[in-house]
TrEMBL record:
One record GO biological process: DNA-templated DNA replication
Entries under InterPro entries matching the protein: AAA+_ATPase (IPR003593), ClpA/B (IPR001270), DNA_pol3_clamp-load_cplx_C (IPR008921), DNA_pol_III_gamma-3 (IPR022754), DNA_pol_III_sug/sutau_N (IPR012763), DNA_Rep/Repair_Clamp_Loader (IPR050238), HLD_clamp_pol_III_gamma_tau (IPR045085), P-loop_NTPase (IPR027417)
Catalytic reaction(s) noted: DNA(n) + a 2'-deoxyribonucleoside 5'-triphosphate = DNA(n+1) + diphosphate
Ranges of residues in domain AAA+ ATPase: 37-179
Region (Disordered): 534-554
Coiled coil residues, start to end: 375-402
A Pfam family this chain is assigned to: DNA_pol3_gamma3
Name of the molecule in the record: DNA-directed DNA polymerase
EC number(s) on file: 2.7.7.7
Transmembrane segments: none
Source organism per UniProt: Candidatus Companilactobacillus pullicola
Enzyme class: transferase
Sequence ranges of Basic and acidic residues compositional bias: 542-554
Assigned keywords, A-Z: ATP-binding, Coiled coil, DNA replication, DNA-directed DNA polymerase, Metal-binding, Nucleotide-binding, Nucleotidyltransferase, Transferase, Zinc
Length: 571
């Protein structure tokens, strides 16, 4: 016989075999034993939690010739035929591929006929939420007034898509995710029955990866056994599931604790290069932070830590994290997870996350104000209001005395320069004045070599930047994120190093000018609007001289000081 997957070989054959759904199986068993079964059931819940298995067991149990306390005997002819999928009175339908009105009308026409072998004709409709609205309407009448010898069992992973009129005509059972402990016990039972050696840590990793689905757990276990030649080791489980090794997560979290972005990025690149999933990586970071919070909070809570994650090495660095920082890391990782699910640039998001959670300055800025600070802020606001009231009272008094009041000049406030003041438009326009496509292509060609010359932290910053214009005199570099543009613009040493490296690679002096990518189209349009090509000025008869190209900075200076004072010199 051909090899069968574990989840098929070990599919439950009785209600007592079903794992993690005790309330549901007990209810169904009692209903069969007391012959009080309903004409229609709705089984809903996550994938791999036993919905279809319970449907098949219920179909056997109501038709079994020798039931025992509501359980099928699995020995009579009816049970054997059902187990071998040759019982004509149990009809399984996949609603995903049979979701039309015609298919449901066919069922409605055939339910009138009596069963050929068993007592009940049982229709098991899997993924019933895939039926069309017309198909649901066709099914509704049959569910409302079914023949006495017919039973419908509907199974779905998305019950919210099923019309309320259908749900109200069924007995609804919600299957919950199976606990990790129950999954572990089931896998241990199977491996012991097959006399296969296994590592308990490997089983823990598989149980965590299954996310509450027994079928998923057995599929991963099957894959790990094939990879390890019928032996389950920790390394095999990590390779198959994409889980991180203890050494990898310890090295990464240690670099985060030491506020060392360069070391953290090095560990990140090694983890991603080993084929680990970025999403699984973020899940592991959250699990580690959760356990560290429990460990730091209370001795009783520390007993609830996940021992498979918290190694002695991680516990050794727990004092480097306080709970406020751990909460901050969890918030940042959760936000990154949303971006990872909707983007193909997983590496960039992971780099940004790593720099964010490993730089102490960012952490300090992100911490919420303390109660003392809030109290001080409230007191200052109250004092300010009192001063304003007193000032207004004095003004009213002066007005009543006929005194002329001069309006107080508002105090000048110093604000941080915005992005426009950070932009060096003169340098950008200088590059655009002689920019060519050939120079831009040359800049893009040397870009990979330039990246290899930078440090790990600088490389992470420049990965979100690219040349957008180039000439014989310089290169305009646009940044995807304004945050990185500001950081690079403020780092004069980095800019100087960047210019030296570009000049060396292009074998000529080249100025590097930075710009946020969001502002680049506007800047380019401004340049085009303010600079008219002399070759396109063609009205000779009007004898009007075409406007010369001007520099906006020069125009502003002339406007402020006048033509007599400003002396323009070309470089």
């Amino acid at each position: 016989m051909a090899y069968q997957a574990l989840y098929r070989v070990w599919r439950p054959q009785t209600f007592s075999d079903v794992i993690g759904q005790d309330v549901i199986t007990q209810t169904l068993r009692n209903a069969v034993a007391s012959q009080m079964t309903s004409h229609a059931y709705l089984f809903s819940g996550p994938r791999g939690t036993g919905k279809t298995s319970c449907a098949k067991i219920l179909a056997k149990a109501v038709n079994c010739l020798n039931p025992h306390d509501g359980e099928p005997c699995n020995e009579c002819e009816i049970c054997k035929a059902a187990n071998e999928n040759r019982l004509n009175d149990v009809i399984e339908i996949d609603a995903a591929s049979n979701n039309g009105v015609e298919e449901i009308r066919d069922i409605r026409d055939k339910v009138k006929y009596a069963p050929t072998e068993a007592k009940f004709k049982v229709y098991i409709i899997d993924e019933v939420h895939m039926l069309s609205q017309g198909a649901f309407n066709a099914l509704l009448k049959t569910l409302e007034e079914p023949p006495a010898n017919v039973m419908f069992i509907l199974a779905t992973t998305e019950p919210q898509k099923i019309p309320a009129t259908i749900i109200s005509r069924t007995q609804s059972f919600n299957f919950r995710r199976i606990s990790r402990q129950d999954i572990l016990k089931r896998m241990e039972f199977i491996l012991n029955d097959k006399n296969i050696k296994y590592d308990e840590e490997a089983l823990n990793i598989i149980a965590a990866s299954a996310e509450g689905g027994m079928r998923d757990a057995l599929s991963i276990l099957d894959q790990a056994l094939s990879y390890g030649d019928d032996e389950l080791t920790l390394k095999n489980a990590q390779e198959v599931t994409g889980a991180l090794s203890n050494e990898q997560i310890v090295s990464y979290m240690t670099a985060i604790a030491d506020n060392n972005p360069a070391e953290a990025l090095t560990n990140l690149y090694q983890i991603l290069a080993s084929g680990r999933s970025a999403l699984r990586f973020t899940e592991m970071i959250i699990r580690v932070c959760r356990n560290l919070i429990l460990y730091n909070s209370d001795s009783d809570l520390s007993n609830k830590m996940d021992k498979s994650v918290m190694t002695n090495e991680l516990l050794a660095i727990s004092d480097k994290f306080d709970n406020s920082r751990l909460f901050y890391i969890v918030d940042q990782v959760s936000a990154t997870q949303k971006n990872l699910k909707n983007s193909n640039q997983t590496d960039i998001y992971m780099e940004i996350l790593t720099v964010k959670i490993s730089e102490p300055k960012v952490i300090e800025q992100s911490t919420a104000p303390t109660a003392d600070n809030e109290e001080k802020a409230g007191s200052a606001e109250l004092d300010k209001l009192r001063d304003e009231v007193s000032h207004l009272q004095n003004e009213v008094k002066d007005l009543s005395n006929g005194t002329v009041i001069k309006k107080a000049e508002p105090k000048k406030t110093h604000r941080r320069a915005n992005t426009n003041t950070r932009l060096n438009k003169t340098a950008i326009y200088k590059v655009l004045g002689s920019a060519t496509k050939k120079d831009l292509m040359a800049a893009k060609e040397i870009w990979p070599d330039l990246m290899s010359m930078l440090s790990i932290t600088q490389r992470a910053m420049m990965k979100v930047a690219e040349p957008v214009a180039a000439s014989s005199e310089g290169v305009v570099v646009a940044f995807d994120y304004e945050m990185w543009f500001e950081q690079a613009q403020d780092d004069s040493e980095f800019l100087k190093e960047l210019e030296n490296n570009v000049s060396r690679l292009m074998k000529k002096d080249s100025q590097i000018v930075l710009v946020p990518k969001a502002d680049w189209p506007k800047i380019r349009k401004e340049y085009i609007d303010n600079n008219i090509d002399l070759n396109n000025q063609g009205n000779v008869e009007s004898k009007q001289e075409p406007k010369k190209k001007t520099d906006p900075t020069v125009d502003e200076a002339v406007k402020l000081f006048g033509d007599d004072i400003v002396d323009i010199k070309n470089d």
